Amino acid sequence: MSIRLTPEQERRVQAVAGSGAYDSPEEVVEAALAAIEQRSVPGFAGTSEELDGLLAEGMASRELSEEEFWSSVNQTTDAMLAEPRFPTVG
Length: 90
Hints:
Blueprint: H1 7-18, H2 25-39, H3 48-60, H4 66-82
């Protein structure tokens, strides 16, 4: 499969790769695909803004490996899913 990026998309991928957050444009694309997969988890009750915040936080941190980052996102997402969204009547 061949994918064509617009000049703006290519600039954005190169900027992320050039920031040192990822070693290559391919890793940037892989992380983006993983983020899309994460968003498509059935039952995720968080907002897209919450998930975007988690992703941005992880990408900004150069201390975590990609595996550690996704583990952290999964733990945070699991915790958000476990939280009651509505008060219980008692």
